[in-house]
Specification:
The chain has one domain. The protein is mainly α. The protein is globular. Helix 2 packs parallel to helix 6 and helix 3 runs parallel beside helix 7. About 85% of the residues lie in helices and about 0% in strands.
Length: about 240
Amino acid sequence: MNANVPVKVKAVSASVGVSQAMVSVFLRDVRVAFRQKQDLLNPLLFFTMVVTLFPLGVSPEVAFLKQSGAGILWVAALLSVLLSLDHLFRHDFDDGTLEQLMLQPQPLFLLVLAKTLAHWILTGLPLVLLTPVLGLMLHLDGNSVATLCLTLLIGTPVLSLIGSIGAALTLGLRSAGVLLSLLIIPLYIPVLIFGTGTVAAAAEGAQVSGYLALMGAFLVLALTLAPFASAAALRISLSNS
């Protein structure tokens, strides 16, 4: 029995070390983002501008906005997240921090997960919090706005997780933003379809539990696979740079 004690102590200390490393990476990314406020505000400004200008460029009719408002907000949120993905690993790549992360004893995929979580907290979550105001501006009713916020709360982490794979693959390449868009947008389409479909079903009074379950499955699948894919892509990008 005493022989198992050192093994248990090592396992506990290793788990504590991994959690501390993830928290440190998360807090560092948050601090760096608040020092570079333009990178923090650009997605929010872009989101607001797209939603605000869309009725002016297409149609300001209330019936049209009620019908297409959820799609407008989802597309604007998708593009806003995509706009911020290029900075997910770029600054760490430029200053050498990314190489230091790869040399750490902790698994790289967990550190990538911490960075992706920080990206969602700084980009995706503010979009969700801003959605009710813009939803009311597009004449969406309260039930549709609540459902829209819920779908964005589930869907925007999926956008960040999938986007981290593209950001890692295009790291250090010329025209990385264009390549990132070509790689990631096709993978975003299922999330966009089910996100807008959930709001449309709620507006018609139909059950939305099936839609939400599928979006939850997308989130679980992205949480399970995306960090491993992003870590592998980072190793490939750094080995070729």
